[in-house]
Structure to design on (248 residues):
């Protein structure tokens, strides 16, 4: 293996880019109702912003952004958001994942479906981001510098 | 033998191009898949989605409505697939601290 090679310029560039990529990821998730996009694509962008810091800064710097043990619970939370949206609809007397029955007051069923799609897209985005970061963390454990 | 492989590939490409020449013109409103009734007198689901996606979910992007609302159980399955793939990667790649001494 090559000797570790660290330069502040790479880390500085990654630190400059990472917040904008993350913001664009959230934009792709939330604006998926009006433009191409959605949970999977936005989640991949969120993972890209996190992996950029992990590749550029090494393991110790990356712990400042998202800790390593936090990725698996985040994936579970993402899947649970989706599943809970379906189960709440069942509990309110509808079918599984029938967002028209979600208990949000003051909305007619069409706008409830709009909100339900937004909720599950956020769940998908969180799960995809956490899974991609988790796979990377487990692949490089003990192999990188820092 | 290499000639034989190339011949098979060219033949296969010719078959595909011949089949593709019979496809309907993209975007033609008279296509069978855009009709209200199919040739067996059942309702075509695609035309229902196109006509009613905005009315049902108030979302201009009908792909999002199909993915998130009409086919949400399919999307849930996709998410489960990704989650399972992550868990398998965790199980395969994780380094445990215990080392068995031979």
């Amino acid at each position: 293996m090559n000797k570790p090679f660290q330069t502040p310029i790479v880390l500085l560039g990654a630190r400059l880019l990472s917040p904008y990529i993350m913001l664009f990821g959230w934009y792709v998730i939330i604006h998926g109702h009006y433009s191409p996009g959605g949970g999977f694509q936005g989640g991949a962008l969120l993972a890209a912003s996190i992996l950029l810091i992990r590749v550029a800064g090494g393991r110790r710097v990356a712990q400042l952004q998202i800790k390593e043990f936090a990725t698996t619970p985040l994936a579970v939370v993402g899947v649970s958001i989706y599943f809970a949206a379906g189960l709440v609809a069942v509990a309110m007397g509808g079918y599984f994942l029938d967002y028209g029955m979600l208990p949000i007051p003051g909305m007619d069923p069409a706008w409830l479906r709009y909100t339900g799609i937004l909720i599950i897209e956020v769940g998908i985005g969180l799960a995809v981001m956490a899974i991609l970061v988790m796979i990377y963390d487990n692949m490089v454990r003990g192999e990188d510098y820092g | 033998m290499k000639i034989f492989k190339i011949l098979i590939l060219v033949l296969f490409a010719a078959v595909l191009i011949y089949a593709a020449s019979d496809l309907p013109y993209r975007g033609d409103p008279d296509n069978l898949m855009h009709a209200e009734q199919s040739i067996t007198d059942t309702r075509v689901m695609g035309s229902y989605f196109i006509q009613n996606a905005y009315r049902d979910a108030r979302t201009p992007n009908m792909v999002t409505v199909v993915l998130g609302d009409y086919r949400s159980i399919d999307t849930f399955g996709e998410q489960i697939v990704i989650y399972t793939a992550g868990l398998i990667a965790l199980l395969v790649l994780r380094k445990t601290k215990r080392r068995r001494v031979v």
